[in-house]
Amino acid sequence: MTAPQIEIQLIASAVAVSCALPGCFLILRRMAMMSDAISHSILVGIAVGFFLIRDLASPLLVLSAALTGVLTVSLVELLTRTKRVREDAAIGLIFPALFSVGVILISRYAGDVHLDVDAVLLGELAFAPFNRLTVLGVDIGPKGLYLMSGILLLNLFFILTFYKELKLSTFDAGLAGALGFSPVVIHYGLMTIVSITAVGAFDAVGSVLVVALMIAPPATAYLITDRLSHMLFLACLIGVICAVSGYWAAHALDVSIAGSMASMTGIFFVATFLAAPDRGLVSIYLRRARQRVEFAQTMLLVHLYNHEGLPGVERENHMDHLHEHLKWEPDFAVRIVGAAERKGSISLDGALLLLTERGRETARRAMVG
C-alpha cells in the first residue's frame, strides 16, 4: 500500500467520522434533508467569501460558508413558521434558490479561478494527497487530513461539552426549555457545526459524499441500537468502514472514489434495513410469522378447552373439523397442531385432539387475561 493510498483513506475516514457525529442528531431530529440543503447552499457563501477575500486558502472562506449554512437554516425555519408550507417544502424552496445564486456567481465572475461547480459537487479524493501542507519548509502531509482532523476535534468538543443539552433538546425540547436550557441556541450551534463540516469536506470529497456520510451511517446505526452513545459510536464505525471499503472498491473497479464510497453507504444501509436484529425487514417478518403461529396455537387451545366435557366433543375436537370451526386451511391446521404437540400443549388420539394439563393452563390464562 502506497503513502497516497493511506492518506486518501485517512482523509476519507476523518470526513466520515466528522460527518457522522452531527449526522446522528440530524437523524434523531428528523432533519436529514437539512444536511443536503446546507451542503449545497453554502456554495454561495464560498463564492461571496472568495470575492471579498480573493484567497481560496483563507479560513475566512470557511466562516463565510458556515454563516451561509446558518442563514439557510434560519430562512427555512422562518418560512416554516408562517404555517403556509411544511418544513420539507421550505427546504425545497430555500436551498435551490441559494445554490443557484452560487452557481451563477461562480460561472459569471469566477471562471478564471480554481472554483467550479463540478469540483464542489463531486470532489476528487485521488487529488487530495497532492495538496500538501508545508511548515518551515517541511512537508507534514496533505492539507485535507489536517483540516478534517481539526473539524473532527471541533465536533467532538462540541458534542462532549453539550452532550446532555443536545440529548435533552433532541428528545424533549419542551423539557429542556423548562430546565433552563436554550433549545434554540443548541439547535443553531448544531447547524453551525454541520455547516463547518460540510464546508471543510467540500474540497476533498464534494457535497454528494458529505450528504451520504452525514446521513447514511447514522441512519444505519439507528436501525441497530436505541442508545444515543452507541448510535454515535456505531455511526462513526460504519462511516469509516464505508470509506475504506469504498476506496478499495473504486480501486478494483477503476471508478470514482467518492461515488464508490457513497454507494457503500447505501449498500450498508440496505443490508442493515433487511437484516437488523430488531428493526430489519427479515426480523419483522419472522417475528410476525412467529406471533401468528403462537396466536393460532392459543386459539386452538381455547377452542379445545371450551369443548371439553361437552356432547359431541369427538366431532368438535377432530382434526378434520378445524377448517370448519377455525376457518383454517388444512396445511396451516397441520402446522399449528404439530407446533402445539411439540410444546406439550396437546396430545393426539388418532385424529382427536386432547388438551394436556399444560395446554389447559395456557388456555385458562388466555381467557382470563
Q: How would you characterize this protein structure?
A:
- The protein has helices at 3-28, 32-53, 59-81, 87-109, 117-122, 143-161, 163-171, 173-178, 183-222, 228-253, 257-275, 281-307, 313-316, 322-326, 330-342, 357-368, and strands at residues 132-135, 138-142, 346-349, 352-355.
- By secondary structure, the chain is mainly alpha-helical.
- It has two domains: 3-279, Orthogonal Bundle (ABC transporter involved in vitamin B12 uptake, BtuC), CATH 1.10.3470; 282-368, Orthogonal Bundle (Arc Repressor Mutant, subunit A), CATH 1.10.10.
- The chain has a two-stranded antiparallel sheet with strand order 1-2. It has a two-stranded antiparallel sheet with strand order 3-4.
- α1 packs parallel to α6, α2 crosses α3 (59-81) and α6 crosses α9 (183-222).
- It is elongated.
- The model has no long low-confidence stretch (mean pLDDT 83).
Reading off the top of the CATH hierarchy, the class of the largest domain is best stated as: Mainly Alpha
- Which oligomerization state do the chains in this entry correspond to? single chain
Helix and strand content put the structural class at: mainly alpha
In the sheet with the most strands, the strands line up as 1-2
Write a short abstract of this structure.
The chain is mostly helical and 369 residues long.
Give a quick set of tags describing it.
Arc Repressor Mutant, subunit A; mainly alpha; 369 residues; 4 strands; 76% helix; two-stranded antiparallel ribbon; 2 domains; single chain; ABC transporter involved in vitamin B12 uptake, BtuC; 5% strand
